[in-house]
C-alpha cells in the first residue's frame, strides 16, 4: 500500500498525472497554496499533495476562487486548534498573529526549512476546512476541459 505522505513524485511526474504544466505547480507553491517536500532543492510531491492540487484546481476553475482568495481562506484555518497547541505556544504562534497567509506559507517565508509542512496535520486538513463532502467528491472527480 502506498504511503500517502511519502514524497515520491517529481514535479514533472506530478504535473503529468494531474494534466497541468509544471509551472502551474510552481505558481501554486509561490502563492502559498502548496508546500511540497524538498530534497536537494528539488520538489517532491506526495499522494496527498496530488489530491490537494486537484481540490485547488476545482476551487479555482469550478467555484470561481482566485489564488489570492484561496490563500486568504486558508489563512483563516485555526492551525493551533487543529494541532491542539497549548496556550503558551498559541501566544507565540506566528500564524495566529499574522492571518495573511496559511501557516505553512508563513514557515516558508521565515525560511524554516526544518519544518516538514507536507506532513503537517493543518496542511492535510485544509481541504476538509474549505470543501463540504459533496464538494470534495466533485473535486476528486474533477476533469477540466482542455
**Looking across the biggest beta sheet, what order are the strands in?**
1-3-2
Strand content: 5-15%
Helix content: 40-55%
Oligomer: single chain
> What is the average per-residue confidence, as pLDDT, rounded to a whole number?
86
| Main beta sheet strand tally, sense and closure | 3 strands, antiparallel
Radius of gyration: 15 Å
Distance between the termini: 32 Å
What's the number of helices? 10
* Order of secondary-structure elements: EHHEEHHHHHHHH
- Parts with pLDDT < 50 across at least 5 consecutive residues: none
Q: How many beta-strand elements? A: 3
Please state the structural category.
Answer: mainly alpha
Shape: globular
Could you outline the blueprint of secondary structure elements for this entry?
Layout: E1 9-10, H1 11-18, H2 22-30, E2 37-39, E3 42-45, H3 47-61, H4 67-75, H5 79-82, H6 87-91, H7 94-97, H8 103-109, H9 121-130, H10 133-140
Antiparallel strand pairs: 1-3, 2-3
Helix pairs in contact: 3-10
Description:
By secondary structure, this protein is mostly helical. It is 54% helix and 6% strand. The chain has helices at residues 11-18, 22-30, 47-61, 67-75, 79-82, 87-91, 94-97, 103-109, 121-130, 133-140; strands spanning 9-10, 37-39, 42-45. It has a 3-stranded antiparallel beta sheet with strand order 1-3-2. The N and C termini lie far apart (32 Å).
Amino acid at each position: 500500500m502506498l504511503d500517502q505522505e511519502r514524497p515520491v513524485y517529481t514535479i514533472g511526474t506530478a504535473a503529468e498525472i494531474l494534466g497541468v504544466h509544471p509551472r502551474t505547480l510552481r505558481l501554486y507553491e509561490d502563492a502559498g497554496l502548496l508546500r511540497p517536500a524538498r530534497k536537494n532543492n528539488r520538489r517532491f510531491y506526495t499522494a496527498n499533495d496530488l489530491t490537494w492540487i486537484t481540490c485547488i484546481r476545482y476551487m479555482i476553475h469550478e467555484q470561481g476562487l482566485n489564488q489570492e482568495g484561496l490563500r486568504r481562506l486558508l489563512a483563516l484555518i485555526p492551525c493551533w486548534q487543529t494541532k491542539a497547541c497549548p496556550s503558551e505556544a498559541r501566544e507565540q504562534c506566528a500564524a495566529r498573529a499574522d492571518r495573511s497567509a496559511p501557516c505553512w506559507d508563513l514557515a516558508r517565508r521565515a525560511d524554516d526549512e526544518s519544518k516538514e509542512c507536507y506532513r503537517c496535520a493543518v496542511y492535510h486538513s485544509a481541504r476538509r476546512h474549505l470543501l463540504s463532502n459533496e464538494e470534495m467528491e466533485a473535486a476528486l472527480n474533477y476533469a477540466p476541459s482542455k
